[in-house]
Amino acid sequence: MNKSNTNGAARLLKKALQLREMSLILIIAIMCVVLSFTNPFFATTSNLQTVLGSVAVDGILTIGMILVMLTGGLDLSIGSVMCMGMAIAGKGIQMGLPVVVALLLGILAAAVSGLLVGLIVTRLHLSHFIVTLCFMGIARGIVYAMTSGIAISLIAQMKENPVLSYLGSGYVGGLVPMCFVVFLILAIATDIYTRKSSVMRRVYYTGSNEMAAKHSGIKTDRIKVGVCVACSVMAGIASIIYMSKYNGVTVSAGEGAEMTALSAAVIGGVSMNGGKGTIAGGLLGLLFIVLIQDAMNLFSVQAFWQDLIRYLIVLLAVILDVLQDKARKKKNS
After folding, report:
1. Which of 100, 197, 247, 279 holds its CA 20 to 30 A away from the CA of 20?
2. Residues contacting residue 125 through CB under 8 Å, at least 6 positions apart
3. What angle do CA 322, 323, 327 make, to 5 degrees?
C-alpha cells in the first residue's frame, strides 16, 4: 500500500517537473537565491519593489498578448495602443473631464482599436502580423498628432486625485506596490477563467485546429475578434496604471512592449501556432525576463549587451517552442 502511494507520488512529481510552469518556477527560485548571494542589493526592499512594479504594466500587456496567441494570432500594436489610450485619457483630464470618464474613454479607444484589428483580420483574411504592424504605426501616429510630440504632464491633476495617484504610485501596507496588486488580481482572474470557462475552450480549439473548430459549430471569427478586443482592453487598463505611475504621458511609452509580451509568452510555453499555453506560464516567463533585466542592471551590464542577451533568450525560446511542436506532431502521427 505504501509502495503504491510512493509510486503514485513519484509519478505526480515527475509529471509536475515536466510542466513548463514548474520548470520556470525552479529556474526563477534558483536565480533569486544566486542573486541574493552574489549581489547585496538584490534582496533589498527597494529593489524588490522595483521588480514588482516592473511586472505590473508589462504583465497586463502579456495577458492580452497570450489571449491572442492562443488563437494562433499575434498583436504587435499593444504598446502603441496603450500609449494612445493614455494620451486620450490624459488629454481628457487636462480638458477638465471627470477622471473616470477620461479613463473610460482611453479604454474605449483601445477597445475600438482591437475591434478594428479583429474585423480586418477575419473579414479580409489578412494576417495578424501585417494588420497589427500597421495599427502599431497608426496608434503611435495618433499619439503624436494629439500631443505634437510633447509629453503630457498630469502632476497637478494627480495631486487633486489621490486615488488615481495611489493606483500607480501607492503601496499596500507600505511594501507591495498597488499597481502590482491590480495586476495580480487580473492575472489570477484571467488564469482561472482560461482554465474553467467554456468560452476559453473554444479559444483553444480555434488555435489548435481552426477548420475542425468551424466544423464543430464554433464561430471562430467571433472568437478571434473577441480576443483582439480583450487584448486591447488590457492595453487600455495598462495605460491607466502607466499614466498614474509616471504622472503623465510620454509619447515613447510602450515602445518595445510588444516584444517583451511576446517573449514572456513564448518563454512561458505559449505556442506561436496557437492552442497551447496558460496565463500563469506566460507571466512566469515575464518574471524570468524581469529578473534577467534586473540582474543585468545590478551588475551594470551595458545597454547593448542587455539587448543582445534578451533577444538571444527569446530566440532560444522560439526554437524550443518549434522543436517541441515538431516532437508533439511526430508523436501523434
Report:
1. 197
2. none
3. 120
The pLDDT of residue 7: 58
pLDDT of residue 17: 45
The residue count for the chain: 333
Spatial neighbors of 294 by CB under 8 A, at least 6 apart, are: 35, 42, 47, 50, 51, 54
What is the residue whose three cell numbers read 510633447? 150
Alpha helices, DSSP H, located in the chain: 2-18, 20-38, 45-69, 78-94, 99-124, 128-147, 155-160, 162-169, 178-196, 198-208, 210-215, 220-246, 257-267, 279-298, 303-332
Q: Kindly report, residue by residue over 237-284, the tens digit of the pLDDT.
A: 999 999 999 988 999 999 989 989 998 998 888 988 888 899 999 999
Surface-to-core class of residue 208, CB atoms within 10 Å of its CB (0-12 exposed, 13-18 middle, 19+ buried): middle
Q: Cα-Cα-Cα-Cα dihedral of 301, 303, 305, 307, to 10°?
A: 130
Residue 4 has pLDDT above 60, yes or no: no
Question: Sign of the CA dihedral 49, 50, 54, 55?
Answer: negative
- Helical axes 78-94 vs 45-69, angle rounded to 10°: 110
Percent of the residues in the chain that have a pLDDT greater than 90, as a whole number: 61
Q: Tell me the torsion sign for CA atoms 46, 48, 50, 56.
A: negative
Quote the cell numbers at residue 172.
499596500
Backbone φ and ψ of 153, nearest 5°: -95, 130
Do 63 and 234 meet the contact criterion of CB atoms below 8 Å apart?
Answer: yes
In three-state secondary structure terms, 248 is: strand
Q: Where are the domains of the chain?
A: 56-255
Q: How far apart are CA 28 and CA 48, in angstroms?
A: 14
Entry pTM = 0.90
Helices 220-246, 99-124: axis angle to 10 degrees equals 150
